[in-house]
Amino acid sequence: MNDKQRAILLQSSSRFPPPPGVKLSYGTAGFRADASVLQSTVFRLGILAALRSLKTQSVIGLMITASHNKISDNGVKIADPSGGMLSQDWEPFADALADAPDSQHLLQLVDDFVKKENIPLEGVQSAEISLGRDTRPTGAVAVDMGILTTPQLHWMVRARNKSMKATELEYFEQLSNSFRCLIDLIPQGSAVNKMNNKLIVDGANGVGGEKLELLKKILNGLDIEIRNSGKQGVLNEGVGADYVQKEKVVPCGFGPADVGIRCASLDGDADRLVYFSVLPNANNRIDLVDGDKILSLFALFIEEQLNTLNKRDGDTENKCYRPTLGVVQTAYANGASTDYLKHSGLEVVFTKTGVKYLHQKAAEYDIGIYFEANGHGTILFSEGFLHWLDGRSSELALTSKGSGQQKAALRLLAVSKLINQAVGDALSGLLLVEAILQHMGWSIHRWNDLYHDLPSRQLKVKVVDRTAIVTENAETVVVSPLGIQEAINAETARYPRGRCFIRPSGTEDVVRVYAEATTEDAADNLANAVAQLVDQFLGGGT
Ligand code: G16
Predict the structure, then answer these.
(1) Are 85 and 98 in contact (CB under 8 A)?
(2) How far is CA 440 from CA 325, 434, 436, in A?
(3) 368 phi, psi to nearest 5 deg
(4) Which residues of the chain, if any, have pLDDT below 50?
(5) According to the model, what pLDDT value does residue 97 have?
(6) Which domains does the chain have, with CATH numbers?
(7) pTM for this predicted structure
(8) So what's the pLDDT on residue 191?
(9) Whether residue 437 has its Cβ less than 6 Å from ligand 1
(10) Is 354 in the pocket of ligand 1 (CB under 6 A)?
């Protein structure tokens, strides 16, 4: 298994710990017990089903039933490729999986079994499981929504739980309608026609490019060319938002012919978005417009609308409502972006890396804008503010239709529908960026000039045990191992405007090093020096 597979297995299995003191066996016809103790078993048999499917390169069945047992029981069993019962020589593995005391043992078991059985985990062929259940109340309904971007699934779950229609068509319609609304609200005489309308999108050879092709068909007002949409090329290899942001070079399929054109890059599941422009005569180097700058653009636009909406113009004070507006970043945010946002009068707060932390923090505001530098982010609107905005907008439609205030209210409502309220979404983020650039009449260069990034460098260091690193203060200070933070501080102090931190990755078996300084050489040297410190304190891994 690779690091990502291990991390996913560890993280997901820790959500379904086995109940203490319960020992289960695959038995006569699968696992069977009181339904209340079966969660971890069903989860683990799902793993077995996937492995069996990969091993046999066939469809495998998973049936949730306790057959003739009483209603409070439930069970789970496998149907083999022939349609018959699970081959008996896999039953001991099923038992061992079910009884593994914790996630680490489970991981070890799976790892050993995959090696012993020579199961291809990295092949192009993915597992296919047919899932069935009987009528027991403890059987969950699984609806396979098919191939989707991660944010589409999050959007659908949210919509479904709000009793809204939640198909891909509704998702696309909501995005295209709210985008159209923002475009229609662009003030007459804005510099819109002066900007280059063409956008080229790198789809990371993943699902995002495929979905953008579909969305594009119902969009008006955008000239989008999609490359790396997965028909050729390998997912995330030399392409995609992570590659572009970390390496700061063009993705495959882009080159000197694209100089001057606005370009964007999605990641493999389309929850990250970065923009870039190809530099002339620069050996494939790019001007990166990262998540921090997307955040800055969004914050600027939202502030502009709030200011317009709250212009007094004879209104009584109680018609003005100043929502709380907060901006959430992580330690990876470029120092120049934080300075810019603070100088613009915005409240900036920091959390640990991970969308789950940023999202939670942003939800504390009426309008919370969060972005990681890597392009993960969105804008959250509180229900209370949206309710007020809806009312205010209807009122303005009666009293001052067509006024700047009414348009500002309509723009904010459109943003709340365009931008994915469930999770960061590269497709909806891209449409909002495009709408705002048209509104401002800005080229990518004008946008990029909002502030100038401090040069930065990110490195990965392999160590024996990355969990030995314990951090505090939104991952800016290492409290264990003792002494390493002092050593990092001493190194950082050698560079003007130097800033550096280390943290254990939560998705790969590495320690991440981030450094920034006033020149590229200084940022590189600082990152390299601190990477060596990590190596000294934590020992090189294999
Ligand atoms: C995930 C998380 C992001 C995080 C990234 C890197 O992204 O959703 O919030 O920034 O991993 O995390 P780490 O530095 O801990 O490895 P993705 O795009 O892989 O889902």
Answers:
(1) no
(2) 21, 10, 6
(3) -115, 120
(4) 193
(5) 96
(6) 3-133 (3.40.120.10), 292-426+441-448 (3.40.120), 456-538 (3.30.310.50)
(7) 0.84
(8) 53
(9) no
(10) yes
